[in-house]
Amino acid sequence: MKNFVLIMMLSIVFSNNQYPSESQINAMIKESMQLVWEIAMESKETINQVTPHVREELLSNLCASAPNPSFHTHCDLSDSLSAVSGDATASVFVSDNDQASWVENASVDIIGTPGYENTWGAITNMPNINNSVWWYLSGSVASEALGLELGQATVSQSPYNMNNSWPTPNNLLATLANDNTGETGADQDIVTLKASYSDDRLYTSLNLAGSCCNEGGFFGPWNLYVIAIVNPDNIDNPVAYAYAYGNGGFGQLYPGIYKIEGDFLSGEVGDFGVLSTDFDYDLSGNSLHARSLLSTITEDSDWGPWPNSYNGVGLVGVTISAGLSGLSISTEILDTSDVGVLVMTTQNQTSNTAPILSDEAYEDGTLCVTYTDAENNLATMSDVAVDDMVFIMTPDSHLYSEGVSFCAEIGSGYNLATLWFSDGSENVSLDFELGAGCQSGDANGDGLVNVLDIVSTTNLILSEFGEYNPCSDINVDGDINVLDIVALVNLILGNRN
Fold first, then answer.
1. Are 363 and 81 in contact (CB under 8 A)?
2. Max intra-chain CA distance, the chain
3. Cα(445)–Cα(447) distance, rounded to whole angstroms?
């Protein structure tokens, strides 16, 4: 009697659940890959239309001060991004404990002062900093600011997973994309997409509102969790790669690194398959962690140039449901993240040398000096003092390791200038003789102040060329005129008394 009841129960189960055929399962998987490919291609388009404004300008010419409690960071923008800077955001992340934790500073904005008109800067308070610092920058721009409707695009550096820590701890991951919650069931609802890198591996993390990962029912529908990967520089090749986790289709859907090839003209996937199962995944808590050797993807014949201009990869998170609806195949995108680009670089400094001042020059009232810093540390102080006045010197570029010319218009009439510079840790100074021994009133340079100097000064005033001689500028007002003749006469008469 018990066996009869068991048979009856099994009959009911199988009668209420349709067993998909092998061809139907294959069709489900293909349609799922079609959806992944479409999203990956949209992401590549987004990257190439939106993120160049971030990648090339927001994340260019990065530099920082030497490690100090008021840690300065700079990056340069082009005019194109400056025009939409109100729609662009950036954050700098700084660590003073070897990447164990990070301080996020979202107060990054255009400095706007002379020499820094298109430079974004931030000062991060790091009271416990010593001689070692790690930092990276993340930038984001809304595509709508550029006339597109492709969502938010983020380009971010990340922490450096130098020891290949696994599963990747949160302090070694950068957030590449956020997503609204409540769009689908919690177990498929994407919250964030994060990533990091080491010397040879790519690390990703797809973070969900609920637990990871609901594989689906025995007969379906089955859930697929995907982190799609594209090469932004491989524009003309419609190929996508993906870290994918699923477990269904009666053994035909399983975890792996998938390669999906499509056709731009037809918009259809032509071929797909598992590129490799040599990757690691972890389903801890609410996150799907996935990693592999980067070469598994970048050395594929269809990947394209590597290293690319980004030194990074485009990423987007996707969750998909695939199953039967009656006798028909049903595949559905449950949720997607915005697109992100992982730039595989991180800045760090563990020692410091003092900057060097050289090639000082003074001409026509302008004083210049070359500031060179071996660690490419920016100048947190660039002052020149003459008499009781201080001028801020302006740089002509920001590549400090190659030497940058700082200049200030200080006028004339000074004999000595003192230049003060700092990289944030080391202070340097330089005294510079401006008058080269010039005696006030000695217009002809013969070492005497007499009527011949009156003649020389008068000739300067009457000259059509308007030449300037600081020795004739007796009252030090920057002009040579009759007032200087009067002062010179008084000087001569005073010397005779």
1. no
2. 139
3. 6
Q: What DSSP string describes 285-334? A: TTEEEEEEETHHHHTSTTS--SS-TTSEEEEEEEEEEEEEETTEEEEEEE
CA distance 276 to 257: 5
Whole-structure pTM value = 0.81
Q: Are strands 88-95 and 174-178 parallel, antiparallel or unpaired?
A: unpaired
215-244 pLDDT, tens digit each: 888 777 889 999 999 998 898 899 999 999
Stronger pLDDT, 309 or 280, i.e. the higher one: 280
CA angle 191, 192, 198 (to 5 degrees): 155
The reply to whether domains 18-50+150-347 and 352-433 share a CATH topology is yes
Question: Tell me, what's the pLDDT at 59?
Answer: 57
What is the identity of the amino acid at 2?
A: K
The CA-CA-CA angle for residues 127, 128, 134, to 5°, reads 100
- Domain ranges in the chain are 18-50+150-347, 352-433, 451-496
pLDDT-derived band at 143, boundaries 50, 70, 90: low
- Enter the tokens of residue 259: 């390669």
What residue type is 73 in one-letter code? T
466 CB contacts (<8 Å, ≥6 apart)? none
For residue 145, give both structure tokens: 């600011």
| CA atoms lying within 13 Å on the CB side of residue 409 | 3
Average predicted confidence (pLDDT) for the chain: 86
Question: What's the CATH fold of domain 18-50+150-347?
Answer: Immunoglobulin-like (2.60.40)
Beta strand 339-343 with 152-156 is parallel
C-alpha closest to that of 196 among 173, 176, 165, 230? 173
Q: Which residues have C-beta within 8 Å of that of residue 104, sequence separation ≥ 6?
A: 91, 92, 93
For residue 294, pLDDT over 70 is answered with yes
Structure tokens at 256: 């792996």
> For residue 279, what is the DSSP state?
-
pLDDT digits (tens, 9 = 90+) for 144-186: 655 555 567 888 999 999 999 999 999 999 999 988 889 899 9
Place of tokens 């260019």: 60
Classify domain 352-433 at the CATH topology level.
Immunoglobulin-like (2.60.40)
